[in-house]
Amino acid sequence: MVVLIFVGLVLLAHYYLWHRLVRSTTGPGRLRKALTWGMVGLFVLVVGTFVSTRMELGHLLAWPGYIWLALLFYLFLFFVLLEIPRAVAGAFLRRAERKRAREPELGAERTPEPEPVAVRVSTAAAVEDAAPVEAVSPVETVPPGAAPPPAPLTRRVFLGRATAAIAGAGALSAVGYGVPNALGDPVIERVKVTLPNLDQRLGGLRFAVVSDIHLGPLTGKAHTERIVRMINGLQADVVAIVGDLVDGSVAELGALAQPLKSLESRYGAYFVTGNHEYFSPGGFAEWIEELGQLGVRPLRNERVEIRHQGAVLDLAGVNDLNGISQGDGPDFDKALGNRDTSRSTVLLAHQPVQVDQAARHGVDLQLSGHTHGGQMAPFNLVVGLQQPVVSGLATVDGVQVYVTRGAGFWGPPVRVGAPPEITMLELA
């Protein structure tokens, strides 16, 4: 059902773009046919990209497919925004055309017919001086082999080409800005979170928080190495990887994850599953084992004690909601039950929406990802309909929640309005 809905939405988007990019800008003929088949090919490219990457059939389609998907989104967005201005301009041009059409009629009424003038001419002289008269066709003929004259530019075509030019420029600008933004260095966000019940000895405890690295067909080993290098430069006490590390199997992406074994922190690196771990063709369990071998400890509905300067903090982690379908869902009672409630608790949970359960278990701070901050504005507005926090620090049901925008990207290598992020979070 999800696949059918996705294909249906992509098909409708391509039909709408065909209507605005092809039908509204061209007349019947070879050019329109060629552009129509080009639009069909782009639709097949998008579907083929998702099928090939999900089934690990090779990634030759990934770059062109995902870049076109980003252009498709922004073209659709700009055309929708231009619908009202286009309608207004069309109405104005129709009114101007009707006004011009009435002007000759009014002018004809005002101009009097010329009076006939009688001229007396000799019949013989007229016959002698008369030149032979050639018949002139009222329609100009085109010599054989010559190109026909160009058709006049209609109002529909003019408006179609004008809006297409504006939408195309806007989409190219957005994607052109978003690609280097997504592929560049993540921003280091420094955040101080005050927990009212925190033991004073735990003040200054620092977490390097990273999420949504999304190792996959468009990232290389250098992507992981850069993230590890930046995290190590923060000299954090704890490293928290809050889900969506991978978009593929260990067999395909294991080499890309190897730099994680070089992560440095005082009290270790910890990981919780995200929804994409459960999409892996090899299954989520192989990544749990792989991360353990890389020195990153998965917190699977469990908690550990972080001992710092003689005080103890509970660090807990729960599985992602998508694990429910595979018998590996979150279990807050297992992770947080029978604990010393006098201690402050930090929870790692991939999706911010899991805060409702965290609140019932007395969690002080939840660290999450999943949203990408919207990744491509204005998706941030859509994400806000599903998740209680899109990015940054907020308080939900009495629990402070920090949502990182993630250090990678999913699908198109494009970020607009939501740069990649690694967070240095300090408790106070």
From TrEMBL:
Its cofactor is a divalent metal cation. GO terms for molecular function: metal ion binding; UDP-2,3-diacylglucosamine hydrolase activity. Pfam families: Metallophos. Residues 205-373 form the Calcineurin-like phosphoesterase domain. Keywords: Hydrolase, Membrane, Metal-binding, Transmembrane, Transmembrane helix. PANTHER family: PHOSPHODIESTERASE YAEI, TRANSMEMBRANE PROTEIN WITH METALLOPHOSPHOESTERASE DOMAIN-RELATED. Belongs to the metallophosphoesterase superfamily. This is Metallophosphoesterase.
